[in-house]
Amino acid sequence: METNGYDDRNRAFLQAFMARSTMTFEEAQPVLAAILSANQGTTVDPEGITHEDIGAFVDAANSAISPFDLEIRTTRRQDPKEANQDAPNTPPVLVYALVNTTSDPLTQLATTYSADEIAFVKRVLDFMFDTNNRRRCEGMVITQMQAVQLAKAGEDRRRSTNVGTQQEGGAAQNLTMTQAQDMMKSLVSEGWLEKSRKGYLSLTPRALMELRTWLVSTYNDDEEDGRRRRAPRIKFCAACKDIITVGQRCDDHECLGRLHDHCVRNFFRMQQAEKCPVCKEDWSGESFVGERAVEEASRVRPSTNVRQRTQDTPEADGDSGAPEDSEEEEG
Ligand SMILES: [Zn+2]
Ligand SMILES: [Zn+2]
């Protein structure tokens, strides 16, 4: 395919991204096919559009938009459900997203939301990546009910978990519960958060691509003399080196070995035995990161004040498996 020079086809491709902000490979195929069809006056088969075709348009778009601190990035969905359910060998869904390469999420939200709403979003992120991201249980998810409980601004939430929130301190006002609910809906509809079948809200692939740098600088301690004061909250897959919020972890909770579900197969294919990439102990594949960790933790330590739900309640709010870890402190 000829993509020398930046022309109407490139502009149309970029516009498609501006309108959607994120596209899977399967969604991008018909978009690019339509653009090429219109340009050439002949019908282009979407099925014939390859990764390389889209990659060429992404590269051209990136050259055009980099002065504006924008970039189309590529990632793979971390969750195993789509990839594994029916056809275990289906590769994970490839996602392209138009992301802002410099500003943090709180700055980006500033054009649409009030300071109090943005402070609420920060409390939600703190909950996901600090409160609900402990050595014993790396959930990195939040339920609707947990989010609504963060509507109040002033409360110190019993545990001093507000890492990096000093500057917003007492300034933020409470949201009402309805406002908090509406904010969560907006964050889902704008593609920052997505809701799982069991009702857990997590960052979307696009949000992770966009926020990776910010998450690391916000939730991981700086290294001092080559040593961190505590284990990093934001961790990376030993195989693909991308951020991991859904996947598998080493059985040793002190170990930083992590692998995406879709990276496990390829990673161990090249080894004689399934050993942790970091500590070299056996890899059971039964310790998890993400909502499976939360589900596991709630099974192991059933909380007396948690209502027991049947597992397959449709459209469950997902508030059942919520560990309110107050006893646990990272040392
Ligand atoms: Zn990986
Ligand atoms: Zn290990």
Automatic annotation (TrEMBL):
<feature type="domain" description="RING-type">
    <location>
        <begin position="237"/>
        <end position="280"/>
    </location>
</feature>
<keyword id="KW-0227">DNA damage</keyword>
<dbReference type="InterPro" id="IPR011513">
    <property type="entry name" value="Nse1"/>
</dbReference>
<comment type="similarity">
    <text>Belongs to the NSE1 family.</text>
</comment>
<dbReference type="InterPro" id="IPR036388">
    <property type="entry name" value="WH-like_DNA-bd_sf"/>
</dbReference>
<dbReference type="GO" id="GO:0008270">
    <property type="term" value="F:zinc ion binding"/>
</dbReference>
<keyword id="KW-0833">Ubl conjugation pathway</keyword>
<dbReference type="InterPro" id="IPR014857">
    <property type="entry name" value="Nse1_RING_C4HC3-type"/>
</dbReference>
<keyword id="KW-0479">Metal-binding</keyword>
<feature type="compositionally biased region" description="Polar residues">
    <location>
        <begin position="301"/>
        <end position="313"/>
    </location>
</feature>
<dbReference type="Pfam" id="PF08746">
    <property type="entry name" value="zf-RING-like"/>
</dbReference>
<keyword id="KW-0808">Transferase</keyword>
<keyword id="KW-0862">Zinc</keyword>
<keyword id="KW-0863">Zinc-finger</keyword>
<dbReference type="GO" id="GO:0000724">
    <property type="term" value="P:double-strand break repair via homologous recombination"/>
</dbReference>
<comment type="subunit">
    <text>Component of the Smc5-Smc6 complex.</text>
</comment>
<dbReference type="GO" id="GO:0061630">
    <property type="term" value="F:ubiquitin protein ligase activity"/>
</dbReference>
<comment type="function">
    <text>Acts in a DNA repair pathway for removal of UV-induced DNA damage that is distinct from classical nucleotide excision repair and in repair of ionizing radiation damage. Functions in homologous recombination repair of DNA double strand breaks and in recovery of stalled replication forks.</text>
</comment>
<feature type="region of interest" description="Disordered">
    <location>
        <begin position="291"/>
        <end position="331"/>
    </location>
</feature>
<keyword id="KW-0234">DNA repair</keyword>
<keyword id="KW-0539">Nucleus</keyword>
<feature type="compositionally biased region" description="Acidic residues">
    <location>
        <begin position="314"/>
        <end position="331"/>
    </location>
</feature>
<protein>
    <recommendedName>
        <fullName>Non-structural maintenance of chromosomes element 1 homolog</fullName>
        <ecNumber>2.3.2.27</ecNumber>
    </recommendedName>
</protein>
<dbReference type="GO" id="GO:0030915">
    <property type="term" value="C:Smc5-Smc6 complex"/>
</dbReference>
<dbReference type="InterPro" id="IPR001841">
    <property type="entry name" value="Znf_RING"/>
</dbReference>
<dbReference type="Pfam" id="PF07574">
    <property type="entry name" value="SMC_Nse1"/>
</dbReference>
<dbReference type="GO" id="GO:0005634">
    <property type="term" value="C:nucleus"/>
</dbReference>
<keyword id="KW-0233">DNA recombination</keyword>
<dbReference type="InterPro" id="IPR013083">
    <property type="entry name" value="Znf_RING/FYVE/PHD"/>
</dbReference>
